[in-house]
Amino acid sequence: MNLQGRPREEPEVNLTSLIDVVLLLLVFFMVSTSFVREADLTVKLPQASAEAETVVEDTERLVLVVTANGEYRVNDRDLVNTRAETLREAIRKTVGEDRDLPVVLRADGRASHQSVVTAMDVLGRMGFDRISIATVNEQDGS
């Protein structure tokens, strides 16, 4: 009588077909993806209603204006170009190191969304966290 057992075979999973399918899916998605940059979207910005609370502060603040052409104005001073670096430098020269200063962002209703987002991004990266977006009342236009 032979008491030696046969060596036990360990089950193994063949991953070759799974890897093939994953690579085919990867190639499919890479080929079918479009890399077209979308143009600016026309978005009508919201206006404040008459019930909106009006806050008037007598404290010092930074006023950042985005014009319809996407140009920036920092405390009524026009900037030479619309680059984020220029905006960052103008803000730094205006307020110094004071990051607790309240910021009022006034964007023209026809300004591109990208210009407003760029301004908010620059302010956020500089450490400003008290950012208000100014709106226009529908009734009196102010």
Description:
This protein has helices at 16-32, 84-95, 113-126, and strands spanning 62-66, 72-74, 77-78, 103-107, 131-133. It is α/β, with parallel strands linked by helices and 142 residues long. The chain has a single domain, classed as 2-Layer Sandwich (Nucleotidyltransferase, domain 5). Strands 3-2-1-4-5 form a five-stranded mixed beta sheet, with helices on one face. Strand 4, helix 3 and strand 5 (131-133) form a beta-alpha-beta unit.
Question: Could you list some keywords that capture this structure?
Answer:
Nucleotidyltransferase, domain 5; five-stranded mixed beta sheet; 3 helices; 5 strands
Low-confidence stretches: none
Distance between the termini: 104 Å
Coarse shape: elongated
* Class based on secondary structure composition and strand pairing: alpha/beta
CATH class value? Alpha Beta
| Helix count, DSSP H or I runs of 4 or more residues | 3
Largest beta-sheet details: 5 strands, mixed
At CATH level 3, the topology is Nucleotidyltransferase, domain 5
Q: Helicity, in percent?
A: 25-40%
Number of E-type strands: 5
Q: Assign the CATH architecture.
A: 2-Layer Sandwich
The residue-averaged pLDDT reads: 81
- Please give the order of strands in the largest beta sheet: 3-2-1-4-5
Order of helices and strands: HEEEHEHE
Strand content: 5-15%
